[in-house]
Design a protein that fits this description.
single chain; mainly alpha; Rhomboid-like fold; 2 domains; three-stranded antiparallel sheet
Length: 328
Amino acid sequence: MRQVGTLPDEQEAAQFIDYLFTLDIDAQADQAADGWAIWVRDENLLEPAQEKLAEFMKNPRAEQFRAARLADALRVEKRQQAQRVQKQQVQMRQRWNRPVSQRRPITIALIVISIVVTVMSGMSKNRGGAVMRSLLFCDTVQTVEWGERLNSNHLSTSDRLINIKQGQVWRLLTPIFVHYGIMHLVFNMYMLYQLGGLTEEYYGSNCVALIVLFTGVISVVVSSLMPFRLIIPLTGDGGSPFGAGMSGVLFGILGYLWAKMLWDPSNAVPLHPNTILILLVWLGLGVFGVLDLMMGPNVKIGNWAHAVGLLSGMAAGYLSRFSLKGGK
C-alpha cells in the first residue's frame, strides 16, 4: 500500500474513500497523529488518487464527492459477484473431482454410439446393410429410377426428402454417428472428447445435448440438400444425402465456444487460440478442395456441414447469453 495523504476529519476521510471506490480505486483510512491517513492498495493508482485528493481538499462539499450511496451499492454488487464466482469455483471443483464418465456423460455416450454404429456398418463400407440404410439421410437402396438419377447427379431436393416424408425423422440427426473409415472415426472422436468434453464440464450436459441436436440437425439437413457439385470453382464438392460424420457438430461446438469468447467473455471457456486456428484452416482447406486431393477420390469432405455447423454454433453461443447463462 502507498499513502496518498491525510485528512483532518474522519467523516471527510470516509467520504473521500467512498468517492475513490466509485472510481474503482480501493483505499482505506487509518487514524494518524495529524488526522486520518489515506492509503491505496494498488501503488499504480497512487498518482490519480493524489490528484483527486487535491481536488477534494479544495471543496469537500462539491456534488461530485457525495458518493456514499453509490459506493454502498457498488460494494454490495462486488460482494455478490465475489459470491457468484466462489460458488462457481466450488461447483467446478466438485465436477472435476467426479469420474470422467460422470463429468462427460453426453460426450462419452456420443463416442460409444459412433464407435458401435461404425463397427456395425463394417466401417461404413457396407452401404447396402441395415445400419447404413437406416441411419443416413436417404436410404442407400431406392427404386431403379431414383438410383439412375442419383448416378447422373440429377437427384432433386424432393427426391432426397423421400424418407423424411415417410416419417423417418431420425435421419435428420443419425448421420452424425456414421463414419467412413477408421481415420475419419478416430479424428472426430478425439476432437469430440476434447471440445465436447471441455464444453460439457464447464456448461453442463444439457447444454452440450442442445448444441449437438441444434447444430447436428442443421448441418445434416443443409449438407444433404445442397447441389452435388457447385459451379463456383475451387470450392470442393457440394452436398450429398449420403454425407456422414460428427464434424458438423464439432464445428458447431467450436462455434459455440468461440461465440462465448467474443460476446460473453466472463462466462467463456479458456479455449487455446491454436485450436480455433487449426479447425478454421481445416475448414478452409476443405472449401478449396485441398483435402479432397490429399485424401483421394473415395473421400469427400463435408464442407457444407462444417461451415453451417460453425455458423449455427456461433448463433447458439450468441443467443445463450440471453437465455442459458452458460447452460448450468
